[in-house]
Amino acid sequence: MADTRPQPFVTDLQELHRHAREQLAAGARTDTAGGELKIGLTLLNAALATTVVCVRRYTRHALCAAGPGSEAVKAAFGRHAREQQDHALRLAERIQQLGGRPDFNLGGLMSSGDTQDEEGRTLVELLRENLAAERVAIETYRELIPYFAERDPTTGRLLEELLSEEEAHAKALQVLLEP
């Protein structure tokens, strides 16, 4: 029987996603450009934090994946880690372009479960954890894109590009999970 309890990483992302949704709601009520910019920067920093956590997770999983068929999975995790690193850099650059400061301090986002040793976890478990995290990222970008579409089309386009790449990651992980 599959363990249906949320993994610590997914739980942390769900909390981040909830916080981003609250910020979106606040953004709709803000009537000053400065306030909207501040909210936009907060949302982008939340996306940056999510991406940095993804880099850590994929890197850790690439190093600990073992067993029959693990080479293809390790290669995919390594590739996704590098692509997530690129996402983080692109988000950080955009935050700076908007006059903000990229926040790489993950604070409470990192749970003890995210830093635990992965030894003994199966490839299927690692793939499922990464797929769940990709789905959270996809949902987050889908909610952020409309917020930025009219306020900041450049950021909206960046988020659309990142969404497309996250969808490709999820598809690749799903293919690896298929028997």
UniProtKB/TrEMBL annotation:
It holds the Pfam family Ferritin. Residues 34-179 form the Ferritin-like diiron domain. One of its GO terms (cellular component) is cytosol. SUPFAM superfamilies: Ferritin-like. Coiled coil: none annotated. It comes from the Bacteria. GO terms for molecular function: ferric iron binding; ferroxidase activity; heme binding. This is Bacterioferritin. It comes from Corallococcus exercitus. The lineage of its organism: Bacteria, Pseudomonadati, Myxococcota, Myxococcia, Myxococcales.
